[in-house]
Design brief:
Number of strands: 0
Largest sheet: none
Distance between the termini: 41 Å
Shape: globular
Number of helices: 8
Amino acid sequence: MRFLSAFIYSDFYLQHTKACLENPSCKICLTVCRKSFSHALYREVCFVRTSFFEFLTAFAGTIAFALLFQVPKEYYVNCGFAGACGWICYKLLLSGCGLFGSTFFATVLVVFISRLSAVQRHCPVTVFLVAGIFPLVPGAGIYWTAYYVVTDQLAKASARGFQTLKIAVAIVLGILFVFEFPQKWFRWADRR
């Protein structure tokens, strides 16, 4: 859908609308249309490829974090899936919802997947939640806030600290939101 909108709103279309309508077989128009279409398609392929690599990276990072917290081996895939889905949700919604909204909705997805995995695997939800939330935690924001405080750049420290606090609040609200759902909503995932 995105490549189609890029094709429709290209500079060529805006400048040559009348000529294209009068002569749809114009060779110049068809060449420019083909170039615009292939460029937009190339951007889409790059976006999908980047998203796939980010999914794999978040998957591996979440599994590494699960290893650090001594999660049993049989739960690694579920932990990695929860973290990777949360990260992709965050990245996809970042431009439309902003930092707070994308973090909130990604956290809702991670907690929902964690609760489903907990019912499915018959273990506590925190096994999946603690590892799965890892890609969304604002570690760099905390680091830069402390750095700016130590280097006496208090204006930057307060700006970065407030941004980090907003992300942390979005994570907390997302966790609370999904934990308010009754447990019976997740029982359908039970494999027994």
